């Protein structure tokens, strides 16, 4: 199996995961303040969404690499 097919398989898997998950979220700590013995911080939850068109494009390109990647012309 050559590198082109491996990259194609990874793109297909990433595209399927992008469609299935739709995105991910993470928590970021910001705005720290100290007032004497008291400490304040704010935790922000942020969402990152994967565009559906990008996931479909990754599947299509990955499929093309898997099908055409091993052929030498």
TrEMBL record:
Segments passing through the bilayer: 6-27, 48-68
Keywords, in A-Z order: Membrane, Transmembrane, Transmembrane helix
Protein's UniProt name: DUF3185 domain-containing protein
Species: Variovorax paradoxus
């Amino acid at each position: 199996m050559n590198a082109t097919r491996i990259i194609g398989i990874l793109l297909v898997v990433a595209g399927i995961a992008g469609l299935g998950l739709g995105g991910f979220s993470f928590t970021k700590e910001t705005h720290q303040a100290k007032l004497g013995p008291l400490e304040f911080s704010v935790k922000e939850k942020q969402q990152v969404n994967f565009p559906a068109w990008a996931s479909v494009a990754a599947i299509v390109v990955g499929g093309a690499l898997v099908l055409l990647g091993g052929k030498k012309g």
